[in-house]
Model the fold of this input.
Amino acid sequence: MTTIETEQLSPISGAPISDKVKQDRELLRQAQADGKLLRAYVRLSGPGWLQSAITLGGGSLAGALFLGVLGGTSMLWLQLVAIFFGVIMLSAISYVTLSTGRRPFEAINTEINPALGWGWLIATMLANIIWCMPQFGLCYESLDQNLIPLVSGNRLGDSNATKAMVSMILLFAAGFVVLLNTRAGLGAKIFDIVLKGLVGMIVICFFGVVILLAVNGNLDFSQIAAGLIPQLSQATQPSGELGGLVAALPQANQDFWITEIVSNQRRVMIAAAATAVGINMTFLLPYSMLTRGWDKPFRGLARFDLSTGMAIPYIIVTSCVVIAASFTFHAKLDDKLKSSDLAVMKTSKSFEGVKPILIARINHELGDTFSKPTNDEESLALETKKLELASQLSEAEKTLAMSLVKRNAFQLSETLNPLLGESNSKLVFGLGVFGMGFSTIIILMLINGYAVRELVGSPNGNVPFVTGCLVAGIAGSMWFYLYAGDAKFWLAIFASTFGSMLLPIAYITFFLMMNSKRILGVEKPTGARMVVWNVLMAAATLGALAAATMAIYETATDKKNPVAFYVVIGILGVYFVAVIIGFFYRKTPKPELNSSV
Done:
């Protein structure tokens, strides 16, 4: 009987594996034989750069900037730990995917637990939609605050009509780039090159700021080194110089500032950790590898790709952003706000931002002593009286208030002033924020396209893919209806906090997959390798659970929305029950086609 090998098909498109993939596979085999793997890895890298494009988005930039504002360099460790654990989990899912050639959603539902599979899919789609909104907001703000004023001298303005028009233009442009990325050939290659160039530009820009600060003797390297050591107490106590300022205050005043600073600090810590590796990134990686036709010979390339294409740029950029933001904003107070003369204070460019914080501080101490105003005139007089009292606060308390101001892109561009000067920093920062936000919109739309394909059970369907892309893009373009503040960067923090609640779903699922003989068969690691994998994945999972718990606690203690906690707990309770049931129910795997006849 003659054995005929069937042609290998892509698990995503269902089409035969291309000659290009076969050539890449042969290149890796030959490079391994010649001992020249590094050159081959550099040439073939790709999915890691896609991860980098979404990792280095508005959320990670906002998280790093506000870490520097609130904690100085004392919280440098957070994003390093988060990306380390994230790469561990992404390496695990890449190992499983490339070892089996199976789509993760199908493998989880069939071999592990359908509740985990569906939870992963739905959480990914929610994260895509939620995270898409701040990216549109950041793009608009970079145009409004930084780029358009440099060209025309005028801002775009705050009207919803203008925001809608700009958002539609961004949506059509992003959709066109997504279309290019889904087609093999020159367009897809250009997309990869643009992503690598964008990441490289951002790395060079912020790296240059830190180098200049170091050359000028503006950096305290002992403090920077200390900031690389994890400090879990930062979840409950003010960090950096702010901690010293609070400790020097009378006890009666400390309570207010500790509550306010720690609450903001926790939100930023959660966001920074969640944006290192979000749940939608765990969905993107395996599908981007399968789309390219990667399989077992590409496992080493996948780990290299994650390390060089994602982790290293992320670590360099976020660390430099934290250092630059620390130098520019941490525990800083301009001379006008230092004044005890209210008229002088009002001339500060930061006055409007710090005003509500100062009023809240006065209300904390004397709120019950004021008569409730009955008309607008009395309200204005009462506000003026409170601001007069606030003007007499110490420099330390005013500095603490400044640390809580939610800055916009125009203000945050000051981080680049030491390197580029004021006007150039506005241009470069604006371009950087726009590029990061726009590239993240593209990737989020792409992920949602893959997710909707799985949702409807059509892994190579064009209509579900386009529908998924449009759902994320259109929802994101409506950001201005759901968020109406000046500091769009803070929307990225909110979205990331929500994302951190979802991440443990993915981490627990991958942990189970790496230990599943049903999925990996003979490819399942054993012995010392399995022990190392389990230790690292367990640490990453515990870290994700800790971040999720902190996010839930923040929701529970949010006085502005007391119902949110019960909603979150209710959803988690129902999902927990579904997971328990899911372990007793698995789909019957479909019969595999024989590889020979």
The longest helix spans residues 114-152. The chain has 28 helices and no strands. The two ends are 9 Å apart (CA to CA). The chain has a mean pLDDT of 79.
